[in-house]
Amino acid sequence: MSEIEPPEDLEPVSAEDGGRRYPSTIGGAFYLVVIAVTAIGFGIVATGSWRQGVRWIAGALLFGAVVRAVLPARDAGMLAVRRRWWDCFLLAGVGVALIVLAGSIPDQPL
């Protein structure tokens, strides 16, 4: 069997070649906000306040679920991975689960 080759007119565009270096949709910008807040949450966890950090991460996921629910599919950017209801269900479900777990795990002695 022969390998399928891509058409000649399709060449990858890199940022170094003058390609886009910014999100093309408003959903892409919101996705970057979700990633940034999640990174802040991981930073808080690393400094020792794990409950507060997990709440920040959960808040970022819940924010992502709301944004995904509101934006149309063409504007959702990287927040749109599956169907809208499934994306919202998973983001909100994990966010709520993290909040519940952070609040229900008892303090352990060191």
Largest sheet: none
Distance between the terminal alpha carbons, to the nearest Å? 62 Å
| Proportion of beta-strand residues | under 5%
Order of helices and strands: HHH
Mean pLDDT: 82
**Helical proportion, percent range:** 55-70%
Low-confidence stretches: none
Shape: elongated
| Multimer state | single chain
Query: Structural class per helix/strand content?
Result: mainly alpha
Gyration radius over CA: 19 Å
Number of H- or I-type helical stretches: 3
Strand segment count: 0
Question: What are the defining features of this structure?
Answer:
110 residues; mainly alpha; 3 helices; elongated
Report on the architecture of this protein.
There is one protein chain. By secondary structure, this protein is mainly α. Helix content is 57%, strand content 0%. The protein has three helices and no strands. α1 runs antiparallel to α2 and α2 runs antiparallel to α3. The longest helix has 21 residues.
Outline the fold blueprint.
Blueprint: H1 26-46, H2 50-70, H3 84-104
Helix pairs in contact: 1-2, 2-3
In short:
With 110 residues, this protein is mainly α.
